[in-house]
Amino acid sequence: PEHRPTAAESDRRLSAMDAGTPAARSPSDALLLSIFPRHVAEALRDGRKPAPEHRDSVTIFFSDIVGFTNISGTLEPHKVSDMLDRLYSRFDELSRETGIFKVETIGDAYMAVANLVEEQHGDHAARIALFAARALRAARATLVDADAPAKGCVNIRVGFHSGPVVADVVGTVNPRYCLFGDTVLTASRMESHSERNRMHCSAAAAQLLREQAPPELQLESRGVIQVKDVGDMETYWVDMPEAVEDKLATALMSR
User: Fold this and answer.
1) pTM
2) How would you class 89 by CB atoms within 10 Å of its CB: exposed for 0-12, middle for 13-18, buried for 19 or more?
3) Which pLDDT score, from 0 to 100, does residue 30 have?
4) I need a labelling partner for 159 at 20 to 30 A (CA). Which of 20, 70, 140, 187 fits?
5) Average pLDDT over every residue of 58-65
6) What is the pLDDT of residue 222?
7) Model confidence over 7-35: pLDDT tens digits?
8) Number of neighbours of residue 239 by Cβ within 10 angstroms
């Protein structure tokens, strides 16, 4: 315990990592801060195992690429990786703009969360909806093949759900920051039951959007559908006109 850094020392180290001092030039420091939340990165950097963390309510986003299997079968592997890099680099920019945390990418799937690493109790569903609207537009502007524009642009499916979650670091070799709980499965199923270029969410997320987003945001009940591994659920299509997006972005960015 006597060798454990004080809170002030931890802040100094992380500030140094962010500010471009010699500590920031350590590749391992930069990598930790790009993958893990700050407090988790600091713990791992000092050789400590972070404790699992419970959150009562987060909103989890999933997307995948429509027709990805066909794309992968017709493009050279390096072109597939280039497409994913261009698309998800843009998503990463959007995640920073909207204040949400990118959890990981798995193949063509992108996973992100709000109200996990930052306190966003009053707007986490709205932040995810804003991110989702911008991600849909970014995908439609991303060429499948940068050398062959005639092949068109990427189309994605989007889904999200709100509920409790547990976050923990798993493993010691290539450790991963993972989320656990039914909320993760349900969010994933909202994506897999979505459609091309559409936002699909659970009733729990829709209720939060009614409370957190401008009233002009359009929520259309899809009725009760059978959701794989979850059961019967009422779900919603989310439509965010550009004027609503601008209004929501202004409100969120001012906080």
Assistant:
1) 0.88
2) exposed
3) 78
4) 70
5) 98
6) 97
7) 455 455 555 555 444 444 466 777 788 88
8) 13
Alpha-carbon span 199 to 129, nearest angstrom: 8
Q: What is the pLDDT of residue 29?
A: 78
Among 233, 177, 228, 170, residue whose Cα is nearest residue 201: 233
Q: Which of 59, 97, 32, 63 is nearest to 179 (CA)?
A: 59
- Cα three-residue angle 204-209-213, rounded to 5 degrees: 170
Cα separation of 114 and 255, whole Å?
15
Residue type, 117: V
87-121 pLDDT tens trace: 999 999 999 999 999 999 999 999 999 999 999 99
Identify residue 126 by its one-letter amino acid code. Answer: A
> Residue 30 is encoded by which pair of tokens?
């930069």
Instruction: Reduce the secondary structure of the chain to three states and give it as a string.
Output: CCCCCCHHHHHHHHHHHHHCCHHHHCHHHHHHHHHCCHHHHHHHHCCCCCCCEEEEEEEEEEEEECCHHHHHHHCCHHHHHHHHHHHHHHHHHHHHHHCCEEEEEECCEEEEEECCCCCCCCCHHHHHHHHHHHHHHHHHCCECCCCCHHHCECCEEEEEEEEEEEEEEECCCCCEEEEECHHHHHHHHHHHCCCCCCEEEEHHHHHHHHHHCCCCCEEEEEEEEEECCCEEEEEEEEECCHHHHHHHHHHHHCC
